[in-house]
Every structure is written in structure tokens, then in C-alpha cells.
Amino acid sequence: MTRKHYDKLTPAARKRLVVASLLRAGASVTLLVLAYYSIPLDRPLNAATWIGFVLGLAAFAAVIAWQVRAILVSDVPRLRAIQAVAIGLPMLLLLFASTYLRISRDAPDSFSEALGRTDALYFTVTVFTTVGFGDIAPRSELARILTMFQMITGLVVVGLVAKVLLGAVQTAVRRRESESPARAVAPDGRKPDAPDRR
């Protein structure tokens, strides 16, 4: 059975598809946040913390690569890109928040105040969005280095990942349009790729 392209669906089918996509994106964000608030993060800061951080960044890159591949073969690449952002962005933010929390618990004077889970997430979001209210600030060298790394990573993610996702969407849309069975007909009745036999 062949799948219908988005533009060939009825308005009701389009609405169902959009709602299902948004529900999947919302469920992904909810699961990631629930995991952040439920996993134990009270172990001491050590080499395992940094190995976990690097593995988390690698997992983020793998998720983005997998999502780009999924966008390229999708019949609804724009909706698929929304899901990619809904999975990738919270994953990256929660990775940094978890690390800030571990630093704060291991060395409470690393920030201007001791961080709880919500405080660490709040700090992460303010750094990522470059709002920087200043109510929570990194004080230790380690906290400042990680904060600078997050700033640079945020710029790369917003620029590079957005470009990659947008490029994947555009490629998928072009592929979908080229596979479309309905072709334009020239004013003289010939198909555009038909040879001129006059």
C-alpha cells in the first residue's frame, strides 16, 4: 500500500496527522523531563560524570543524525523536523542541567546558590536563551568552563543543527515533489519531458 502525500490528504486526515505528530513531540518532552526529575543525580562528581556527559553529547549527535535520516525519507518532513527539535533540544538542555546539578551537589559554592533540579534546569535555559538574569551565576572555575561550553554548544546547535534540519526538510520536499505522479502539462498538450516530435 502506498502512502498518500500530505498535500493529497483530506483536511481531516491532515489534522489527525498534525495532532498525532504534536502528541508524539509532547510525549517525548514529557518523558525526558520525567527522567530528569526521577534519575538519581546525587553521586559524587568524578570521571564517570564526565564520561557520562561526553556519552550524552554523543547520544544527542546520534539522535540528530537519526532524525535527519528520518526527515529525508518522510512523507511529512516538516512535521518530522518538529519532532526532531522536540526530542533533541530538551535532551541537550537536560544533559547540561544534570551536570550543573552534579557540580552543585559536589561543591555547593560552585554557583551563587545551591542548585536543586529546577534551579539547574532554569539556569541551563537562561544560558541557552542568552537571557542571563544573573540571579544564578557560576562561581567556580569548573562551573564557568561548563557554562562557556554550553554557550558555544548552544550557538552551534541553533546554527548548525537548524541548518541541517532545514536542509533535510527541503531535500525531502524536493524528493516528494519529484516523485509526484501528477506532472504539469505544457500548453500544447505535451508533458514537459516528452520529446518534440514535430
Automatic annotation (TrEMBL):
Keyword Membrane listed: yes
The superkingdom listed in its UniProt entry is Bacteria
Gene3D superfamilies membership: 1.10.287.70
Q: Which residues form the Potassium channel domain?
A: 92-167
Q: Which residues cross the membrane?
A: 21-39, 45-68, 80-100, 149-169
Regions of biased composition (Basic and acidic residues) lie at 188-198
Signal peptide location in the record?
none
Instruction: Give the residue ranges for region: Disordered.
Output: 176-198
Q: Name one Pfam family in it.
A: Ion_trans_2
For this UniProt record, give its keywords in alphabetical order, as a comma-separated list. Answer: Membrane, Transmembrane, Transmembrane helix
Protein name per its UniProtKB record: Ion channel
Species of origin reads: Pseudonocardia cypriaca
